[in-house]
Structures are given as structure tokens and as C-alpha cells.
Amino acid sequence: MNGTSEIIQIQGLVKRFPMGKGEFTALRGITLTFGKGEFAGLVGPSGSGKTTLLNIIGSLDVPTEGWVNVLGNSIGTLSAKEAAQLRKESIGFIFQSYNLLQVHTVYENVEFPLLLLKHNGSQRRRMVMDALEWVGLVDKEKSKPPQLSGGECQRVAIARAMVKRPPLVLADEPTANLDAANSHHILKTMETLNRELHTTLLFATHDDKVIGYLRRMIYLLDGRVDRDETVRKD
Question: S-S: 44 plus which of 48, 59, 193, 197, CB 3.0-4.6 Å?
């Protein structure tokens, strides 16, 4: 494990969902820890539990059994308001489908997380332009998503996730809709931000392009940890 302090602690995590008259067990006794500054991935086939685990770490869902502690917060005991506050202040999300506001400019999309925090206009301007510089899109600040390529849209999504400099960013299949060239550009950008800002990045993926960049891979199979491997050390 990279980093000096654990920011995610998971012990005996079980997650079940109702299904018909019974239930489906998506996660079966997951125990993991992640340290500050990791560049790690949850790897496995569709249905292995990657997204479910990522959603619980991101406080979008709660454990059925076991416990999950993220940045000092026990996910299963947070109120909806407290979970929203944790996401707002400390977690960035990057989605497969970008989830950009189509009628707003690139600048406005990246600024949006800051409007939920107490930053004045000049602070927001500086932070947004820093984030656009990180992803190489300063010249696109007045463009709107329909005017951008898929790769540019995902770079906007990265800037939006990183603009508040969160300690944790969760990325769910972030390159699934991109070609190889754009995928590598995106991943190099994320790798640089991880190194320079010491942000912990955790991916859910089965994309070989992403896997090639990871420094740690947790292989999930049928809701269990099959292997946990450190593959690269800085």
C-alpha cells in the first residue's frame, strides 16, 4: 500500500440487494485498506461488485453488514445530510458518461462543485482556471459540452472532480467511451494529478488501458477479493 496513512478502511463488508422474493449478494466479506496518495483499481468482470464497492466508498450506498470508514467517517452510520456533506467537501467523482451540464459552459461545469462550498468569486475563478490548466482546456472555458469531443468532455469531468482538491477521487470506468489515444491522455493527466496533488485515485474498471497505469490492483470475483497486487512502485 502506498502512502503513510489509511484513508479508507473496509472490514467484513457485505452488500445484499432485494431481488424478486429473495436477495442478491453483491459483496461477500470484503476487507481492504487504502492509503493516502494511492493510484489503485478495482478490477474484474461485469457483475463482480466493482461499482457497488465504489458506490459504498463514495457514500452513495451503505453496507448490509460490516463497516466502511472513509476519511474518518463511518459510512453505514452517516445521515443522508452527513453523507452529502462528505461527498461535497472531500470526494470527487468521475463517471463513464461524463455527466456534464449540457447548457452550461466548460467553466460553469467545473465551477459547480465550488458553488456548494464557501468560496468567493475570485477564489472560484482561480481554482477553476487552475483545474482547466491541469487538463489542458483553458482555451475551452467558454465552450459547451456539445461543442467538445468525447476526450475533451472527460477532461472537463476530471477538472470538475479535482477542482476542490479533494483527498479522494473515485472513477467508474472513466475511459469506457474513449479511443486509445484519448484514454492514454486522460490517464496520464490523472497520473500527474495524483503525483502532484497526492490525491488518492480509485478506479472501477475492466479496461486494459487503465489497468496498465495502476500501481495497485484489487481483483474482484463474484463479490470477493480474489487477489490484491502491488504492480508499480514510484
Answer: 48
Query: Residue 142's pLDDT band (boundaries 50, 70, 90)?
Result: very high
pLDDT at 2: 42
For residue 1, being part of any structural domain is answered with: no
Check which CATH number belongs to the domain holding 55 and give it: 3.40.50.300
pLDDT tens-digit map of 78-88: 999 999 999 99
| CB contact at 8 A, 41 and 200 | no
Distance of CA 161 to CAs 64, 131, 135, 140, 171, Å?
Answer: 28, 9, 11, 17, 9
Query: For residue 121, what are the domain limits?
Result: 6-230
**Rounded to an integer, what is the distance from CA 121 to the centroid of its chain?**
26
The DSSP 8-state label assigned to residue 63 in this structure reads: -
Residue 97: pLDDT band with limits 50, 70, 90: confident
Whether 197 maps to a domain, the answer reads yes
Average pLDDT on 26-39 reads 97
Give, rounded to a whole angstrom, the gap between the first and last alpha carbons of the chain. Answer: 12
Question: Given 3-state DSSP classes, what are the helix, strand and coil percentages for the chain, each rounded to the nearest 5?
Answer: 35, 30, 35
Q: Residue 11: what residue type?
A: Q
